[in-house]
Design a protein that fits this description.
The chain is mainly alpha-helical. The chain has two domains: 1-160, UbiA prenyltransferase (Tetracycline Repressor, domain 2, Orthogonal Bundle); 162-277. Helix content is 65%, strand content 0%. The protein contains twelve helices and no strands. The chain has helices at residues 3-9, 25-35, 40-69, 74-80, 86-94, 108-123, 135-155, 162-188, 198-219, 227-241, 248-251, 263-273. Helix 2 (25-35) runs antiparallel to helix 3 (40-69), helix 2 crosses helix 7 (135-155) and helix 3 packs parallel to helix 6 (108-123). It is globular, with a radius of gyration of 19 Å. It starts with a helix and ends with a helix.
């Protein structure tokens, strides 16, 4: 295998319509920022452990998607071209999980959250349980994992408080919206494992920004800066009005699209780092 093959196999880079596994790692750094504290050595080791879980779970997910559903992905190309046997591809998928030993052991909560993240990401695609094939569990597991990644990074340097838990709720609602976009991508690409119809998906796409808006208005009575989510929820709702579903596979790769409006959490991170939030 060439270096580029390894990067594609572990989803460290985008491949066709497959998104990089490193995207959720941004929530680890959002957690660091909200803690308003940073120790480079601990932060680096922790990020390495989270990245290992993400790389391993994404690789295993692609392997089982191919073996169980016949999905065409980079893993299937490796096996069908004879570059690697199915057994080797499967074993290599577990290899990045070794990076979990890099986790700092100074505090118990981040270790527990990392363990929960490891379990959820593995059973999400593992054949005997395979949460992703269960309509509700498959839909909410990725958003739950996003919140765990955020809180795991935060608790490495900070302690739980109302403000952070409110932000975690907004992050959960945002990721439910992201998961609805993922479902739409599956629908548009005629994925055999489509679990929702187009009308149901579009209802959810409008519902979650609306719930975020309402939640943020309520939270703004606790801290005025939660109005930031009100603004970006409106931006998402307006972007949906001009949205062409046929463009979803292209837009999923463009994190700067108004449909994502990911700037919201980048701004929260900057405000956290500067002590304004």
């Amino acid at each position: 295998m060439r270096l580029i093959d390894i990067l594609f196999y572990y989803r460290l880079l985008n491949w066709r319509d497959k998104i990089s596994c490193l995207r959720p790692l941004a929530y680890t750094f959002l957690g660091y920022a909200m803690a308003a504290q940073f120790e480079l050595g601990l932060a680096g080791r922790n990020a390495l452990a989270v990245a290992g879980i993400l790389a391993g779970s994404y690789a295993l997910n692609d392997y089982f998607d191919y073996v169980l559903n016949g999905e065409k992905n980079f893993t299937s190309n490796l096996i069908e071209s004879g570059q690697l046997s199915g057994r080797w591809v499967y074993l290599l998928g577990w290899l990045p999980l070794v990076l979990c030993i890099a986790i700092p052991w100074q505090k118990v909560t981040p270790v527990i959250l990392l363990l929960v993240l490891l379990i959820l990401t593995i059973i999400y695609s593992l054949p005997w349980i395979r949460l992703k094939d269960r309509k509700i569990w498959g839909f909410i597991t990725p958003p739950v994992c996003a919140v765990i990644i955020f809180l795991q990074g935060y608790t490495l340097f900070g302690n739980f408080n109302a403000k952070v838990l409110m932000l975690a709720i907004l992050l959960f609602l945002f990721h439910l919206y992201v998961e609805a976009l993922h479902q739409l991508a599956d629908y548009v690409s005629d994925n055999d494992k489509i679990q929702m119809g187009e009308e149901e998906i579009f209802n959810l796409l409008h519902l979650f920004p609306l719930l975020s808006l309402i939640s943020a208005v309520i939270f703004s009575f606790y801290h005025l800066l939660f109005l930031l989510t009100v603004f970006f929820s409106v931006v998402r709702l307006l972007a949906l009005r001009k949205f062409d579903p046929a463009e979803i596979l292209r837009i999923r790769k463009n994190i700067f699209s108004p449909l994502w409006s990911i700037y919201e959490f980048a701004i929260y991170g900057v405000l956290g780092l500067t002590g304004c939030f």
